[in-house]
């Protein structure tokens, strides 16, 4: 049977497939030589009185910290106030997601306290953007419908309302996750690991504590030559630059800078790009042979 890993603890894994759920262990070489990640698509069979994982299928993407595979969406959660949105952080999250072939989704919470329109307008037309009032639940149904049938993870700093958001888009999921933890032999005081919760109508979502404190290089080394492609709104202009090796930061004849001046690219997005470009300039080529998530 083919299933997906939705939680793990040590060498014990919870898997799910079409309404079927089981707690499994890895067989043989998989237990000693291979890391099984949440999100992995695996083959399982019943043997010796227990379910065992016998094979891991190829991954479409992978993130090392936190360890997750095969994500469809990275849901970037931001508060419209207290704490205010960190635009640079949002832009780094979206860049990493795009680079890893994961679709970014941006959600602004606490809209009952302050409107998020000022911030949401920066990203509409580039990525899917949702606003959710976690007090009333307004907007949660639209987000839940969008995520239905997909495998998603939440990212965002503490205090932005991720737990409340999960409770709004998948009621009862936290309780079910607690039950999975007990089956895996874990108590609530155990160090948190990534655990995926079922969405109404299908799909899974997880709150990922490892995404809270963000540093781009912790997740993947994006080299300067690849960075512009991680800003989707740059793409239609980047090929029109005078120089093929244009950095899109200062050159004359840069079509990206012309688009910026014409209001076709948001200034905050370009500032984030320049900041990330300066960071990328410090990366050394030999990292290509050492980074577990080196560019393809």
Give an overview of the whole structure.
There is one protein chain. By secondary structure, the chain is an alpha/beta fold. The chain has three domains: 2-56, Beta Barrel (OB fold (Dihydrolipoamide Acetyltransferase, E2P)), CATH 2.40.50.140; 62-211, Rossmann fold, CATH 3.40.50.300; 221-289, Ribonucleotide Reductase Protein R1, domain 1 (Orthogonal Bundle), CATH 1.10.40. 29% of the residues lie in helices and 23% in strands. It contains eleven helices and 13 strands. The strands form three sheets. Strands 10-9-8-11-13-12 form a six-stranded mixed sheet, with helices on both faces. It has a five-stranded mixed β-barrel with strand order 1-2-3-5-4. Helix 2 (87-99) packs across helix 11. It starts with a strand and ends in a 15-residue tail after the last helix. The relative contact order is 0.13.
